[in-house]
Automatic annotation (TrEMBL):
It is found in: Cell membrane. This is Cadmium-translocating P-type ATPase. Belongs to the cation transport ATPase (P-type) (TC 3.A.3) family. Type IB subfamily. It comes from the Bacteria. It comes from Streptomyces shenzhenensis. The chain holds residues 306 to 603 of 659 of the full protein.
């Protein structure tokens, strides 16, 4: 017997390096007319590097001291930023103190008890909203400076007091701009960027990738609202993401695709399809495969 077109398309998608979980998903992929991409780990390589270690004046910390605290608090996190901080600490040969009571908030950051103090590491805009302190202005200024340079600014607080910032930079995937161009030309789908990162770093990266519609500073539930709004406007949205923070949006999307290599377990389980070969260019390819198969299905 000849294989039904949608099953052949699934086999074909597999050869392209995309695991499509069902024939229904294979069919739905061809219906999408908007593609919402997450930034970190999706549009970027997802292996960010710490470029700046900046203790605040009066914090009593030097650069290794700041990095050591941040790395200790991040050490249980799967987030790409956490991996960047841990790599930086390892490269400098820092011995990490024990962290206890680890907790994380998607789209915000992490916290843990280190050296009997509560250390929080995360988005300056989110963490600074909780503190009113003399260090706040200096921290906000430094965050702005780092973000103007296209960095993701990561704030470190000790017992609610800002002690320093890390600057982190991530590179666009080599195939990001070509993928965005091919989404538009081959599939006609509108590309968008949805990110929890700061608007300046987001705008810079979107410009490099050729994306005009950028929505930054989004918490996981804001990513969901963005998808729902597009759906209410009649769009069939494909969400491409990798993080725990993307899982709700992947679930709310017409179709959700997770980036497999660095993707969190939750994202991989929630998504309808998984990019196993770590190339973004497979996304327009599977949309095209779906459309071809749909034309063959009677
Ligand atoms: P994206 O949408 O780009 O994947 P996330 O929603 O995962 O970003 O994170 C949004 C922001 O929250 C990050 O830019 C960072 O400032 C902060 N953040 C989240 N998790 C962490 C973490 N483990 N360590 C430091 N910062 C974090
Ligand atoms: Mg991400």
């Amino acid at each position: 017997a000849t294989m039904p077109p949608l099953l052949s398309a699934i086999a074909n998608a597999g050869r392209h390096g995309v695991l499509v979980k069902s024939a229904v998903v294979m069919e739905r992929l061809g219906e999408v007319d908007a593609v919402a991409l997450d930034k970190t780990g999706t549009l970027t390589e997802g292996t960010p590097r710490v470029t700046d270690v900046r203790p605040l004046t009066g914090s009593g910390l030097d650069e290794p001291g700041l990095l050591r605290l941040a790395a200790a608090a991040e050490h249980r996190s799967e987030h790409p930023l956490a991996r960047a901080v841990l790599t930086a600490a390892r490269e400098r040969g820092l011995a990490l103190p024990v962290a206890e009571g680890f907790g994380s908030t998607p789209g915000v950051g992490v916290r843990a008890t280190v050296d009997a103090q509560l250390v929080a590491v995360g988005a300056p805009a989110r963490l600074l909203a909780d503190v009113r302190d003399t260090g706040t202005t200096a921290a906000a200024d430094l965050a702005g400076e780092l973000e103007d340079g296209g960095r993701t600014a990561v704030l470190v607080t000790v017992d609610g007091r800002p002690v320093g910032l890390l600057g982190v930079a991530d590179r666009l995937r080599p195939d990001a701009a070509a993928t965005v161009a091919s989404l538009t030309s081959r599939t006609g789908a509108v590309p968008l960027l949805l990110t929890g990162d700061n608007p300046r770093a987001a705008a810079r990266l979107a410009a490099e990738a050729g994306i005009e519609d950028v929505r930054a500073g989004l918490l996981p539930e804001h990513k969901v609202s963005a998808v729902r709004e597009l759906a209410a406007a009649g769009r069939k949205v494909l969400v491409v993401g990798d993080g725990v923070n993307d899982a709700p949006a992947l679930a709310a999307a017409h179709t959700g695709v997770a980036m497999g290599r660095a993707g969190s377990d939750l994202a991989l389980e929630t998504a309808d399809a998984v990019v196993v070969r770590d190339e973004l260019a497979t996304v327009p390819a599977v949309i095209a495969l779906s459309r071809r198969a749909r034309r063959l299905v009677v």
